[in-house]
Design a protein that fits this description.
This protein is α+β, with helices and mostly antiparallel strands. The protein has an 8-stranded mixed β-sheet with strand order 2-4-3-14-13-12-11-10, sandwiched between helices. Strand 8 and strand 9 form a beta hairpin. Helix 2 runs antiparallel to helix 12, helix 3 packs parallel to helix 7 and helix 3 crosses helix 8. The chain is globular and about 60 Å long. 52% of the residues are buried.
């Protein structure tokens, strides 16, 4: 069935991807690569200068590298990639592409839905606006979006949005059709509206969210916080998000292809997960991160913004330690719309999206890996951890380091992560 989705002209009704089924298998594999055919999108244009990717002259065979898996299947990198619904994968070591692979109908020029990897791109836009003096992370969100007054976001700061530490009532239960994460999809045009009130757009929905507690408390993953952040960025700059990403990230990064971002029926970008981009351009994005925001001589993202995210302290670690994410990513933290987790060679920076989207950045081994996928479910801990471990094993192999044994502890002992990541010991409890 997966190979028959939208096949033929016209395709038979049972194979048609629709707003009701596009996030479900087998339709999601086609839909993630053709989203502009289902939902309106806005163009994110590259600039005139393209940043060439360097390819290893004699790339090593990486498929046989050993991986300690928590999921089923052979314990090798190749098996992890084959078992986890991969659409595209690119691995870059020390500036050179050592693996580039496309499966099914995916091609090098195919834009793929990034889901919440989009959040990290919005973060980089935000960092630029802060550097330009247009946005103050410590300011209340109502300074930029007056519509948040008297809503659950009233009293929150931009920093609360960046680190997902607001007190807004919003649930991220993907399997619950009444959870906030699914209700907002009906306002952003990702699903059909089921009421008779008409679609008033995503921003009106955000301004209607109530409070569930004080701001600045524990980390709670809320996609609504990123949508609120995107709205704040647009108001601060006076420019819509598609054009901000184009001018601040895509063009100076030297992107090769157009990207796109879905928009609601009123034209508001879906900041939390609506960006579509090619695997190659996401590899460029990861290489920019590993080089502290630079592409060659060009500064794309302020170095201090990325270093701030990588720095962990007791407050940011404590906010994460009691969250639902701690058992899956023990010892980790979330800051500036990026994930971090202890790895065998040092802390790993991650951009993550549901259904298996990932940009993996290992500063210690100089390894970037991009995986675009179509998992049949929104979340799968085994696929996630096995992929992180596979990319970590590749990085260590390419850096000339030995394999790492053992299994991640679900709950690290002691106050893990209270100093700069690069200062922490390797092989500590909680490493993925």
């Amino acid at each position: 069935m997966a190979d028959e989705t939208m096949a033929g002209f016209p395709p038979p009704p049972e194979s048609v991807a629709t707003l009701e089924n596009w996030q479900q298998p087998p339709f999601n594999r086609w839909a993630f690569q053709h989203l502009r055919e289902l939902i309106p999108t806005q163009r994110i244009a590259p600039g005139p200068e393209k940043s060439a990717l360097a390819y290893h002259a004699n790339p090593p065979d990486l498929d046989g590298i050993a991986v300690t898996r928590i999921g089923e299947g052979p314990p090798t990198v190749g098996a992890v990639l084959a078992d986890s619904w991969t659409d595209a994968v690119i691995i870059v070591h020390d500036g050179q592409v050592v693996l580039e692979r496309y499966l099914g109908e995916m091609r090098a020029d195919t834009p793929h839905l990034l889901m919440s990897v989009s959040k990290s791109i919005v973060s980089c836009v935000c960092g630029n606006l802060v550097a330009q003096g247009l946005l103050d992370p410590d300011a209340p969100v109502t300074r930029y979006v007056a519509e948040f007054a008297d809503s659950g976001y009233d009293g929150a700061t931009v920093r609360n949005l960046l680190d997902m530490r607001t007190g807004v009532a919003f649930s991220e239960e993907y399997e619950n059709p009444q959870a906030g994460v699914r209700v907002i999809e009906r306002h952003m045009g990702w699903r059909r509206r089921t009421d008779e009130n008409g679609n008033v757009g995503m921003y009106a929905y955000l301004a209607s969210l109530p409070s569930d507690g004080p701001h600045g408390g524990p980390f709670v993953y809320r996609s609504a916080d990123t949508d609120a952040l995107g709205w704040v960025c647009e108001r601060a700059a006076g420019v819509r998000m598609a054009d901000l990403v184009s001018s601040l990230i895509w063009a100076p990064m030297g992107a090769e292809f157009d990207a796109e971002v879905t928009c609601d029926p009123l034209g508001s970008a879906v900041h939390d997960g609506g960006i579509n981009a090619t695997a190659r351009d996401m590899a460029r994005f990861g290489m920019m991160l590993i080089d502290d925001g630079r592409v060659g001589e060009r500064a794309v993202v302020p170095e201090g913004w990325l270093q701030q995210a990588r720095h962990i302290d007791a407050d940011i670690r404590g906010a994460f330690s009691g969250s639902d994410s701690e058992p899956v990513l023990p010892g980790g933290w979330y800051r500036n719309q990026f994930w971090f987790v202890p790895g065998p060679s040092g802390d790993i920076q991650l951009c993550l999206g549901i259904n298996g989207q990932m940009v993996f950045v290992d500063h210690e081994t100089r390894t970037v890996a991009v995986k675009l996928s179509s998992w049949p479910t929104a979340q799968d801990a085994a696929y996630l951890i096995d992929t992180i471990r596979a990319f970590g094993a590749v990085g260590r192999h390419l850096a000339g380091l030995g394999p790492v044994g053992g299994v991640a502890s679900p709950h690290p002992s002691g106050p893990a992560g209270v100093v700069e990541g690069s200062e922490r010991g390797h092989g500590r409890p909680g490493a993925i």
